[in-house]
Amino acid sequence: MMNKNFNRRAIKNNEAGFSLLEVAISGAILMIGLVAILGVFALAVSTTQGVQLDQIAKQKAMDALESIYTARATQSFTFAQIANIGGVPGAKFTNGVVNGILTDGPDGIAGTADDGTTPQGTCPLPFQCAILPGPDGVLGTPDDVTLPLSNFTRTITITPNAAADPNLKQVVVTVGYTDGRGHPRNYTVSAVISSFR
Fold it and tell me: How far apart, in whole angstroms, are the C-alpha atoms of residue 41 and residue 38?
């Protein structure tokens, strides 16, 4: 009889459930997991903001490069004028870092001395603006956000390639900005432009 009672007690003790220590450890592990997930979510939101700014920088760098090709193709500027101001007489493109992405001037070419003088929609002069989707996430609705590109920089460097071929120039466009965490970011495009159309 004693064996039966002992076996019943042994079975009953095995089915007693979780101890308070086990519950506390499980809760701590669960909290660490939830905090990690929250950290990943915050990083994802921050990265999404950075992606928007990266795309703006990329687009503005490509716009400036295309603008230079357009000036050459339409003969708005001669091949000799496609140079940085101060480099050669009659050069049209700004030299050094320009703070803010300025509106294209009356000539319609980005990166020239007349930039920042022509208004662009409701954007305050002298800067261009990017229109971003508002809280509803849909572009073209009344809650869209207008972002002046005053915190961006643009540098256009045009280097003659006289040693290899005097009919070629190296064009490098760098658009930079500081992200939400204070880190500088740059987007650079480069190409070779020819005197031939």
Answer: 5
Any idea what DSSP says for residue 180? T
pTM: 0.74
Q: Which residues are CB-contacts of 117 (< 8 A; sequence separation ≥ 6)?
A: 103, 105, 106, 125, 126
Task: Give the start-to-end residue ranges of the domains of the chain.
Answer: 48-194
Q: What is the bridge-based pairing of β-strands 97-99 and 129-132?
A: unpaired
69-76: which pairs have CB atoms within 8 A and are 24 or more residues apart?
A: 69/191, 69/193, 70/109, 71/109, 72/193, 72/195, 72/197, 73/197, 76/107, 76/108, 76/109
For residue 178, give the DSSP letter: E
* Rounded distance between C-alpha atoms, residue 102 and residue 114, angstroms: 10
Q: What is the mean pLDDT of the chain?
A: 87
Q: What is the mean pLDDT of residues 141-152?
A: 91
Length of the chain: 197
The half-sphere exposure of 143 on its side-chain side, counting CA atoms within 13 A, is: 6
